[in-house]
Specification:
Blueprint (H helix, E strand, L loop, with lengths): L1 H13 L7 H9 L6 H35 L11 H16 L4 H24 L7 H25 L1 H11 L8 H19 L2 H7 L3 H6 L4 H23 L5 H13 L3 H26 L7 H18 L7
Helix pairs in contact: 1-3, 1-13, 2-3, 3-8, 3-11, 3-12, 3-13, 4-5, 4-6, 4-7, 5-6, 5-11, 6-7, 8-11, 9-13, 12-13, 12-14, 13-14
Length: about 325
Amino acid sequence: MLVALAAVCALSLAVGANALPLSVVVDALTSYDPTNPDHLVVIEKRVPRTLVGLVAGAALGAAGTLMQGLTRNPLADPGLLGISAGASLFVVGAISFFGVSQVGGYVWFAFIGAAVAAAVVYGVASVGREGATPVKLALAGAAVTAALTSVVTAVLLVDRAALDLMRFWQVGSLAARGSTVMWQVLPFVVVGLVLALALGRSLNGLALGDDVARGLGQDVTRTRVVAGIAIVLLCGAATAAVGPVAFVGLVVPHLARYVVGLDYRWVLPYAVVAAPVLLIGCDVIGRVVARPGELQVGVVTAVVGAPLFIALVRRGKTVSL
């Protein structure tokens, strides 16, 4: 998987409207010449784009795995807990009410929106004697997502300028994401990944059911809270950076389980590596199929991810959590 990741990163640096030999890419990385236009393309455009793909992909892979393990729902992805809808609402608000028009400005609004939506979902699901059970989390997430999406649609219908700017973020893209965006979200992703990778054993316990996990001495509430914090950090950062990219957080955990089994101590690190392979690979495909233009990565992940997910599900192992 690491070899595959290195290969797609190399392709990401070499492939584009102006295809470059790998020798030129290596020369740009080792002996950068700011007067060479090919070096400028590699260093100023493609390196930041690839790094954003690495960071966002790792975040989406870990977040999707956590969400499926936490909710015991094989269809869980960053949209399940209202993450994408909350980010979208705050981005629309930033565009429509505050005049924000740059990707760097979207990041903080999207992240705050994702965190607020996740907190609302968890708060609603926690009401009652049983607390935030997997079923209640899924239902609360669906309800909050529907409510937030309706508000976003209402704002966009009456604000044409917001609609024009929003549609480029909403589709999901690595284009025009510079190093500034990557550095803004990187601390949140690092903290989220550390928390996620530390939860492998606890997710194995939750997979047996809450009662069995408690019988084994596990603090189920603490596990859910820590996992929820990690999900907010990872989903919020990834969605803020590249938009609501579909299928990566859904497909990659199933792919990792198909390779290594059901032990989350292995599934999580494999998902962290496999998700950037899928995301950056789809970004490269988007640059090739529509030259001299390109398809946004969110479109390509949907086209590639849907058949892949169907093929994995038909194997039977993927729906076992």
